[in-house]
Amino acid sequence: MEFWDLYDKNRAPLGRTHRRGEPLAPGEYHLAVIVVLLNHRGEVLLTRRAKEKALCPGWWENTGGSVLAGETSRQAIARELREETGLLADPETFTLLLQEDCRGDTHFDIYALSWDGDAEDIRFQPGETDAARWVPLEAWRQVAGTEGTLCPAQRQAYRQELYRRIALYQQGKRTFS
Q1: 25 Cβ partners below 8 Å, 6+ apart?
Q2: Which UniProt keywords apply (predicted)?
Q3: What's the pLDDT tens digit per position in 78-89?
Q4: Residue 70 half-sphere exposure toward CB, CA atoms < 13 A
C-alpha cells in the first residue's frame, strides 16, 4: 500500500496523506518525479513501460514515479531510478531542471542526471520496465509526447523550457531557478 503527501495548487503541503489508487478531491495534488538521463554522446536513456502497466503499456519513457509520503523529491527520484533501472545515485547529484504544476492532479519535478553506462547494464523492475535504449536527444525531442513515447513535460511551454534547460545542462549548468 502506497501513500502520498497531499499539496494544494501552489505546492503548499496540506498536512494529510492519500492512499494511491483512490481518487483525489478537487484542489488536492500529489507530487511525482521524472529524470532525464543523459550521456556524453548527447543521448537520452529511455525505458519501456512493462506490458502489464494499466496506462501506456509498452510506451517508452523517462524514469520516474510518485513521491511517497515523508520523502523529499530528490529522495524519490533516487529511489525510482534504483527501482526501475537498478542504477544508484546520491539524491544530491540530480539537477532539478523544471517544475510543472497542476498537470491533472499532479505536480511534477523533472530532473537531469549524467550517466555513461550501457543500456544493457539496466536491471528491470518486473511489472514496471522491460527494456532500455539510448536515443539521440534530437530524435527523442521529435517523438516525445507522440504515440509510443511519453514526454516528461506535457504542456508546450513547459516542454520548450525543458529542452532549453537540457541544452544548458549539457553545457555544464547545474542550477536553474
Answers
A1: none
A2: Hydrolase
A3: 999 999 999 999
A4: 2
